[in-house]
Amino acid sequence: MNAMKIAPSILSADFSRLRDEIQAVEAAGADWLHVDVMDGHFVPNITIGPVVVESIRKVTKIPLDVHLMITDPDKYAPEFIKAGADWVSIHPDTCANPNVSLRKIRERGAKASVAVNPDVPLEKVEGCFPEIDMILMMTVFPGFGGQAFIPDVLPKIEQVRRIVDQKKLPILVEADGGIKADNIERVVRAGAEVIVSGSGIFKTTDYESTIRQMRAAVGQ
Ligand code: DX5
Ligand code: ZN
């Protein structure tokens, strides 16, 4: 089992106290911060833009994992990278040519990742593998925090883990959506190593104890 990274999604944080929330999860042991960017077009919800990412960058040192759920990632990814995004995930159906979009993200100095929705077979994105540093396996449909985990995605996480290991690909496997202390073990056992959790962390009272429970659940 690879060392697990925990990436709290700020979507479930208290935005009126965003700096405190970020610093609290960082102090509680978060490895990365997951930033969900939604434009009201690709998904029916609007969240934050590059200006906010720029502000976040100033108050934390941990990597910013920016998940773009927007119709025009080619136009906006450069702005998010300039604002401080270390990792940028895109949904392939939002790009004319996902490989070109992913390559541009890397050329601008960020790590590139492709997101796979629960109903998308892995075969659809395998052509992106040479261009990515991470694959984001969605365990809910994108759009909102606090949704129920979709266990049907677990075999697909096992499938991607097998491919990555067999071919020794330098690709991290991330899982995102509905992951909490009580189901994280299944997700990690299936093969995910970067775990996004929004409500599973920010809706609990003691972030440090929640993150400790998450690590204990996977024996880390
Ligand atoms: C869903 C987002 C997720 C979400 C995770 O569209 O991509 O990152 O915020 O939140 P929870 O853990 O509450 O499902
Ligand atoms: Zn996300």
Short description:
With 220 residues, the protein is α/β, with parallel strands linked by helices. It contains eight helices and eight strands. The protein has a single domain (5-217), classed as Alpha-Beta Barrel (TIM Barrel), CATH 3.20.20.
Which helices and strands, and how do they pair?
Elements: E1 5-8, H1 18-27, E2 33-38, H2 50-59, E3 64-69, H3 73-83, E4 87-90, H4 98-107, E5 111-116, E6 134-138, H5 154-166, E7 172-176, H6 184-190, E8 194-197, H7 199-202, H8 207-217
Parallel strand pairs: 1-8, 2-3, 3-4, 4-5, 5-6, 6-7, 7-8
Bound molecules: D-xylitol-5-phosphate and zinc ion.
CATH hierarchy: architecture: Alpha-Beta Barrel
Based on Cα principal axes, name the global outline.
Answer: globular
* Order of H and E elements: EHEHEHEHEEHEHEHH
Tell me, what is the CATH class? Alpha Beta
The tally of helices reads 8
CATH topology: TIM Barrel
Question: How many domains?
Answer: 1
Helix content: 25-40%
Could you walk me through the main structural features you see in this protein, from its secondary elements to its overall organization?
The protein has 220 residues and is an alpha/beta fold. It has a single domain (5-217), classed as TIM Barrel (Alpha-Beta Barrel). The protein is built from 8 helices and 8 strands. It has helices spanning 18-27, 50-59, 73-83, 98-107, 154-166, 184-190, 199-202, 207-217, and strands at residues 5-8, 33-38, 64-69, 87-90, 111-116, 134-138, 172-176, 194-197. The chain has an 8-stranded parallel β-sheet with strand order 1-8-7-6-5-4-3-2. α3 links the parallel β3 (64-69) and β4. α5 (154-166) packs parallel to α6. It is globular, with a radius of gyration of 16 Å. The mean pLDDT is 98. D-xylitol-5-phosphate (DX5) binds at residues 9, 11-12, 34, 36, 67, 140, 142-147, 176-179, 196-200.
